[in-house]
Amino acid sequence: MRTTVATFACTAALVAGLSACAGDDEVLRTPDGSVISTTTTRFAQVNIVGAGRNYSRTCLAPTAVDPGRVDPTRIIVTDPALLDSLCALGLGPQVRAITAAPGSVPEYLGPQLGGVPALGDTPDAAAVREAAPDLVLSTPDTADRLEALTATGALGKAATATIDLGADWQRSFAAVAAATGRSAAGRQRIEEFTTEATRVGRVMDAAHSQVSLVRFTPDETLIEGTSSFGAQIMSLVGVARPAPQRTPDAVVMNETNIADADADLIYVSYEGDGGRARGQDVLLSDDWLDLGAPSWKRVLSVGDALWYGRPGLAAGWLVLNDLKESLNGSSAGE
To answer: Read out DSSP for 23-48?
Structure first.
């Protein structure tokens, strides 16, 4: 079994824009400033990567506005998926409301954004006036919420921008950076991330580890391809994938193709309670345990919302930290 690489935290990672993480040394770092320890929380004989993670450290340090651009100080978003980019730009404190149901903010964005007032799909004028936005960010999928905001008559002179959250998460992030007057800072944040991802791949010799992705949903077990968010981050790091998993689309795993899920290491995840129940059945089955990686205790569980949710740079750092912590690890108990 490959020896686990010693990894250390980048104390200033999320405080100083992560630029310190782009050095040329051989030390792996994560944002919380502490030595990475082996995860002991387990499910179905599999260690959970990042269990107990402190999400209060997710959002990055504030960024500077571009010269000559207006700096928005009060922002409303109509789609919780936009919050990731604002978090990565250090603009969390400027977000004053979201037009969504309570509980819509992804947990990984932490208490700063989790506590933002949720105005619902049809906010009333008084709530909008209290938020007093100077910028409203929307998406094509939430155009009706933008219309509801406008219909209150309380937006005043607030600027609006519609962001297309397509498959290219880096382009979406750049669009949010541009809408908030931070194009230069946005480019710098992406450069910092890709530089660190490349360095992590080199330090951990990622190209010589074949890693499989298996996702349990309530209805089926999926052998993932290259299009999911976690798979894209692994590609930036340079992690190799088994030959059957080098196409974009996921395929349903069954008794005839279960061997396609095998690799040096398998990351599994569970979508909701139904996925968790399915995962427990599969992970304890004879067919699964007969595969190479399970028999070598080389199966680890990762967060489904991070690896398969609507992606962004803030989530990208957390996925990268999962890889730092676990790429050379195992699911063996202590």
So the answer is: -SSS-B--TTSS-------EETTEEE
**Domain with 263 in it:** 19-57+190-326
The answer to whether residue 119 is domain-embedded is yes
Domain boundary among 117, 152, 181: 181
pLDDT digit string, tens, across residues 288-329: 999 999 999 999 999 999 999 888 999 999 999 999 999 987
Cα–Cα separations (whole angstroms), residue 311 to 45, 109, 128, 175, 183: 28, 12, 28, 14, 19
> Looking only at Cα atoms, what is the longest distance across the chain?
64
Give the Cα separation of 121 and 103 in Å (integer). Answer: 13
Per-residue confidence band for 94, with pLDDT thresholds at 50, 70 and 90:
very high
The answer to whether residue 233 sits within a structural domain is: yes
Contact at 8 Å (CB) between 211 and 241? yes
What is the number of structural domains in the chain? 2
Distance between first and last Cα of the chain: 16
Cβ-based neighbours of 252, under 8 Å, separated by 6 or more: 220, 221, 222, 223
Closest CA to 211 of 295, 323, 307: 323
pLDDT in tens, 97-134: 999 999 999 999 999 999 999 999 999 999 999 999 99
Indicate the residue among 181, 208, 236 that finishes a domain. 181
